[in-house]
Amino acid sequence: MTKEKKRNFVFIVFGPPGSGKSTQAKILANKFSLVEFDTGQVIEKVIFDPQKARDPLIKKQKERFSQGKLCQPSWVAKIVSQEIKKIHQKGKGIVFSGSPRTIYEAKRIIPLLEKLYGQENIFVFLLKVPEKISIFRNTHRRVCSLCGATLIYNQETKKLTRCPCCGGELKERILDNKKTIKERLKKYREETKPVLKYLLSKKIKIVPINGEPMPEEVSQEIIAKIK
Ligand SMILES: [Zn+2]
């Protein structure tokens, strides 16, 4: 064993809906004790923080948010940067799933991550799943009628008749019809392309991963690629 300084990683997991990116993010977070970073959750936390309720800028964002409008990208980038700095100060690494979603966000986040963690510690994992499988998985999702947990479709979960968390009854999630999922796949391709192009130009490592096998196999492939 070398007495190497502990590396602090930044993992970015990309993949179409149904590729299991949040599952992989969770596995990586546990294995490397990383903070799971969800931009949407970070924004919500700030917007609904009672201590910040009087802040005029946050009030404005809250208004937009509750009207279903997107928060201002510059404001989002600021909040996200602050959160990243906080995590880094605690000496922790980060795993992102599905973000940065826009080129605007990427251009503000990536240089900061490079500065704090070093380019050699940043890895992008691109989960590859054929469109057919993505559609199938998304149209076969089930949700627990008691606790609301969502079950993705795979060899293990297809056998379950009850929720593995609480034993509740599982219901098909009708929301994900074929048309909706096709639109989400299109949106994913349109959003991801320019972000990946930017990451390539920054010489960030982009590692394609086969997202078809079982989650444990996928995570083994990911871990084997971390050098
Ligand atoms: Zn449940």
Sheet having the most strands? 5 strands, parallel
- Cα end-to-end separation: 15 Å
Second-tier CATH architecture of the domain at 10-130 and 197-224: 3-Layer(aba) Sandwich
Structural class computed from helices and strand pairing: alpha/beta
Instruction: Specify the number of helices.
Output: 8
Chain-averaged pLDDT: 88
Q: What is the chain-wise order of helices and strands? A: EHEHHHEHEHEEEHEH
Spatial extent as radius of gyration: 19 Å
Q: Could you say which overall geometry the principal axes of the C-alpha atoms support? A: globular
Question: Can you lay out the helices and strands and say which pair or pack?
Answer:
Layout: E1 10-14, H1 21-31, E2 34-37, H2 39-47, H3 56-66, H4 73-89, E3 93-97, H5 103-117, E4 122-128, H6 131-139, E5 142-144, E6 150-151, E7 170-172, H7 178-201, E8 205-210, H8 215-224
Parallel strand pairs: 1-3, 1-4, 2-3, 4-8
Antiparallel strand pairs: 5-6, 5-7
Zinc ion is lined by residues 144, 146-147, 149, 163, 165-166, 168.
